User: What shape does this take?
Amino acid sequence: MQQSATTFIAGLLLCLAATATAATGLPVTVINSDNNKPVAGAVVWAGNPQAVAPVSAEIYQKDRAFHPRILVVPVGSSVDFPNRDNTQHHVYSFSPAKTFNIKLYAGRPEAPIIFDKPGIVELGCNIHDQMQGFVVVTDTPAVGRTNDAGQVTLDLKPQPGERRAVLKIWHPRLPDTTRPVIREVDASQPVTIALDVEPEPATDGSLDLLQQRFREL
Assistant: This one.
């Protein structure tokens, strides 16, 4: 009888441990504050920095567009910018998180760009105004992008007794695309965050303002 009781308690403890581990996943839903519709493609990450290994990635140019248009990488990552078009490109950014300038080129640049600071990096091409891209550089492994239902689950690892968490949320249709929206939330339950996002553009849009800023440098 004593052995059965011991076995039962051990099994119960294992179940509780598994439940606690599963509870570190924080469900987040992002909606449009104007109409409560889900916002797909929002990048959501934890605001408390944690060590994360850098990666190697690429954003290639094809059909006079960046692919992918939005890249999420850990801080310290290297990103290559191969040109797969039959025309030259001039890729640049003057964002505080990373300023660089790859002058007119075809093929593959001599070296990748190292994104050594967290933040939002806006990309442009000084030859083709319509080209726009973003690199979201994060300093935590707890990061994800919302699906078509506006939902993502973050793998948070809170300290014992800690319930509050700071989240950063970014979307390419925010009024200010240079910085994320910051929200403090209760990490012990699912979270819904309302964002002020602009309507989808009728076309791919233009980088007239970005171009003007580049030419004024």
Helices lie at 2-22, 208-215. Residues 25 and 43 are 16 Å apart (CA to CA).
